Amino acid sequence: MNKISIVGAGRVGESTAQILAQRDVCHDLVLLDVRDGAAAGAALDIRQSAAAHRFDCRLTGGADPALLAGSDLVIVTAGSPRKPGMSRSDVLNVNRAVIDSVVDQVLEHAPDCMLMLVTNPVDVLTWHAWKRTGWDRRRVFGQAGVLDAARMASFLAEETGISVRDVHTMVIGGHGDSMVPLTRFSTINGLPVTTFVDEKTIEYINEKTRHGGAEVLEMRQHSSAYNAPAAAVATMVDAINSNRDRLLSCVCVLDGEYGQRDITAGVPAILGREGIRRIIDLPLDETERRGFQASVDSIVNDIKSL
After folding, report:
1. Are 229 and 14 in contact (CB under 8 A)?
2. Can you give the residue ranges of every domain in the chain?
């Protein structure tokens, strides 16, 4: 891609910019934030690391929405983070207003871009952004499942002692306590995870996965996770930029898949240069279907409160 813009120069946005710059994924990288100095300062700081990290990506930061012009991809990390004891849904109302403003700026200055939502509650806000843009569903998607699957893989690696490089996991549903870790579709170098861990350990790992973000927040108190989310965003950007057609769990607009319509949820999808190329409709068993439906119901309830 020629140009990527990140809206929100907080910790997730800045960490994402650092990773993308180091990987030299685009010619121009913009950090946009209502706090002009925060965006400009972060861009300058990262730019000054170019000699050490050997990248040529040009970074710009500021508060002027016109900086979005010409973007191939806009990544939205702006919004209010949750505090200890809060759920992702607790920040819905304040972050909806943020997304309204950002989407309007994108429509004005970068009407041909793809839009990736990271701001929580990401499932609901991805649906809201899609409705507000009126765009094809392939162009509006969210990051959640890549992060959740990475957390699940980390916990599996810790429990088994096997390299995390060999662990492949899948998590679907909403990015919250009702997410559905799919043990049946998760493997360690092609072997079922049940080869290495028992049911009790699997349930422990699944619970750790569902509350992975909350655990980080509880420990830090004054900051939610940002390194792992930024790495997850970068994984998706790489799939788009390199046209890899990677199979990743993304927040997608569903139109008949999994028996759902006019709703967004995390599902496996093929991600490439045009965005979401195809959604993979997995043959879920009854337990998995019930879990996914409960997760969708939670998203629907939050959408009703918009």
Report:
1. no
2. 3-142, 145-304
